[in-house]
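Work Package 3 (structural annotation) set out to generate three-dimensional models for the target panel prioritized at the project kickoff. During this period the team completed the workflow that converts sequence records into discrete structure tokens, so that structures can be stored uniformly alongside our sequence database. As a representative example, we reproduce one entry of 278 residues exactly as it appears in the project archive.
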Amino acid sequence: MPVYFFREEEEVADSAVKEKPKEKPKERPRIHFLDELRGFAVFCMVFYHAFYTIGYFFNWGWGLWLLNFFMPAEPFFAALFIFISGIASNLSHSNIERGSKLFFISFIITVVTYFALGDAGIIRFGILHMLSICMMLYGILTKVCRLIPMWVGFAVNAVLFVLTMNVTMGYIGLLNVWQMNLPADWYRTDFLYPLGFADSSFLSSDYFPLLPWLFMFFAGCFFGRLAAQKKFPKYTYKNHIPFFSFIGRHALLIYIVHQPVIFGICTLVSRFIPGMAH
């Protein structure tokens, strides 16, 4: 029997070994604790928006009272939601694509709120507008951000967030410690409101300018490297509160539909139970 026959057999055997299907890489475990925190933030947001709608659009006194009562807490659960969104950017395949889709959705929300509610209820630059731009910016700057040590980036963005918290009030700094007034001309334009420089006539029923919230988002981006490296504590990978976890996984859908649902419920209540307005 010719020698080349055995060589062919060897080559076939070798190729069979080489063509063994590669094992699929293990999927990154889901961090359920982040879903739960996001769900809690969305839960609080829904109730806050409900009180806003009840108080300002339906003029129910008790709704306005509840809105004013919970108003000091609103920036905290909003900051939590934005920070978690920054963390999640480390787990996304394409932040530019994700941000582009979210920007389109936020644009539709602006159009719908304008035609449905007019200037009194339009959302010109809400939390989704802001998050969409932050996602795209991070997608563009990812390689640059990775050159910065994690804790340095986190600390710098945290400090910048604190310093720019009062940009909408006309200054940066720390109240009663140090502050610097910003040029008044910045607040007399019609196009700088996404940055936080809005004039007195600016209206948006949901307003989250890039300053200071961009820095909260990027602080989350830097902190989120721990999530990408699977270095979060073990308990964060377990599902503790399924209700909040479910809300957190469907946060965008809930944000889109909750306001029409609230309006619908309030309209029905005002029609059939007029006494609720007192």
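The chain has eleven helices and two strands.
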